[in-house]
């Protein structure tokens, strides 16, 4: 097969199966070997965690660029367009490059299938191979690689990174890498490699020993939030470790932890940035769809929180803001069918005005996918555009409007707002 258009590549990717029968790395290692192991031709930083891994990856990418490094970034999901998943120095992969790299993969797949006709890649595997091949071709100095799900069995786990990062451990994707928190911690600890340092964020006390044992076994230096470095929210966001104390523009504390983890991981590389350059790199970073403030009065915040831990963090942030503003919290919510819907909805306070909606996407939950008690308690509007406009119109100066539950909804609303702003000008 030969591709001519980027959209053809994307459509093909989404037509592939999602999982192999067995969750191992045989397939991806086979094709990478045939391509000359591009993942070994670049230095990498490997980032996993239930929450915060995307933000941490963006902050790390900006720090590396500030230090003059040609920097690749592989993240998911995307907010605006698929090409966001694979970036070079903050620029999305071009359609032309996407097509070119995909065609190289296709020619190798054709060779493999001569001996093994049944050989095929799943969607995420193909995306990972696209990223590594592109980064190697572009001669990146470093690439920041965000894990898809878990760690040990994730398709990105074919690298020996300069630094590994585990941001948080919480409940999400339990059906794939669970069911318990201990199972999830074990799976995430699979990215720790021999003699390579690991940076840990907020890890629950009950599973911390699992990760520490893995680090000990691999002789990996551990740097942990709260003991080796710290982040405090005062007037500004303060980062502290044994060597430096740096002040950043204020952000939600949970976002501050991601910043702290990124700064600590960066400090383990043999690269130098002054305190003011570090500040600039962090302060200039925008993470699409994560605590993204659209406007201030009323405060409209877009965040793709889609699991218990992320939603609790977002609501803590909103309720903290509400104490100062003395207004009402409204929430426009859309979730995927396969998420912990029940548990997430138990986090809302009685005073929170929650509205359900959906988008045109096969995994998006519709009204009948919610429990009867959720359907009875909260209004459902199938048209997200109308629902968002109504809530925005209803919100007074002191109110807070959260758009959350999925990056897909956040992306749709961001695109709509951008189009509206352009048409006004």
TrEMBL record:
Residue span, Mur ligase C-terminal domain: 289-407
EC main group: ligase
Keywords: ATP-binding, Ligase, Magnesium, Metal-binding, Nucleotide-binding
InterPro entries cross-referenced by the UniProt entry: Folylpolyglutamate_synth (IPR001645), Folylpolyglutamate_synth_CS (IPR018109), Mur-like_cat_sf (IPR036565), Mur_ligase_C (IPR004101), Mur_ligase_C_dom_sf (IPR036615), Mur_ligase_cen (IPR013221)
Gene3D superfamilies reported in the protein's UniProt record: Mur ligase, C-terminal domain, Mur-like, catalytic domain
Boundaries of every Mur ligase central domain copy: 47-249
Catalytic activity annotation: (6S)-5,6,7,8-tetrahydrofolyl-(gamma-L-Glu)(n) + L-glutamate + ATP = (6S)-5,6,7,8-tetrahydrofolyl-(gamma-L-Glu)(n+1) + ADP + phosphate + H(+)
Keyword ATP-binding: yes
Enzyme nomenclature, EC number: 6.3.2.17
Cross-referenced PANTHER family: DIHYDROFOLATE SYNTHETASE-RELATED (PTHR11136:SF0), FOLYLPOLYGLUTAMATE SYNTHASE-RELATED (PTHR11136)
NCBIfam families per UniProt: folC
The family this protein is said to belong to: Belongs to the folylpolyglutamate synthase family.
Protein name: tetrahydrofolate synthase
Species annotation: Lactobacillus melliventris
């Amino acid at each position: 097969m030969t591709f001519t258009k980027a959209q053809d590549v994307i459509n093909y990717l989404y037509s592939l199966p999602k999982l192999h029968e067995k969750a191992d790395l045989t397939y991806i290692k086979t094709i990478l070997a045939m391509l000359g192991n591009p993942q070994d031709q670049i230095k990498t930083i490997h980032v996993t965690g239930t929450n915060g891994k995307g933000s941490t990856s963006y902050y790390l990418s900006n720090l590396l660029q500030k230090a003059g490094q040609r920097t690749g970034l592989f993240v998911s999901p995307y907010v605006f367009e698929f090409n966001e998943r694979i970036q070079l120095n903050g620029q999305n992969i071009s359609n032309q490059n996407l097509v070119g790299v995909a065609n190289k993969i296709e020619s190798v797949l054709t060779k493999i299938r001569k001996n093994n006709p049944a050989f095929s890649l799943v969607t995420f595997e193909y995306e990972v191979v696209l990223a590594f091949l592109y980064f190697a071709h572009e001669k990146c100095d470093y690439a920041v690689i965000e894990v898809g799900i878990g760690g040990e069995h994730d398709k990105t786990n074919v690298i020996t990174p300069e630094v590994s990062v585990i941001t948080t451990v919480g409940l999400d994707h339990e059906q794939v890498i669970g069911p318990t928190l201990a199972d999830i911690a074990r799976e995430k600890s699979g990215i720790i490699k021999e003699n390579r340092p690991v940076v840990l964020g907020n890890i629950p006390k009950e599973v911390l020993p699992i990760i520490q044992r893995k680090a000990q076994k691999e002789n990996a230096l551990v740097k942990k939030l709260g003991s080796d470095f710290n982040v405090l929210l005062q007037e500004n966001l303060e980062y502290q470790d044994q060597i430096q104390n740096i002040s950043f523009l204020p952000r939600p504390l949970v976002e501050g932890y991601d910043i702290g983890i990124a700064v600590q991981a960066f400090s383990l590389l043999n690269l130098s940035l002054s305190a003011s350059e570090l500040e600039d790199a962090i302060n200039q970073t925008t993470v699409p769809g994560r605590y993204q403030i659209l406007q201030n009065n009323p405060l409209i915040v877009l965040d793709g929180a889609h699991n218990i831990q992320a939603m609790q963090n977002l609501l803590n942030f909103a309720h903290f803001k509400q104490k100062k503003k003395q207004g009402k919290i409204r929430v426009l919510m859309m979730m995927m069918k396969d998420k912990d819907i029940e548990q997430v909805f138990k986090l809302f306070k009685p005073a929170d005005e929650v509205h359900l909606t959906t988008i045109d996407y096969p995994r998006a939950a519709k009204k009948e996918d919610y429990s009867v008690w959720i359907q009875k308690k909260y209004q459902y509007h199938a048209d997200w555009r109308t629902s968002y406009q109504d809530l925005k119109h209803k919100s007074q100066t002191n109110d807070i409007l959260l758009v959350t539950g999925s990056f897909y909804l956040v992306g749709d609303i961001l695109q709509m707002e951008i189009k509206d702003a352009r048409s006004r000008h």
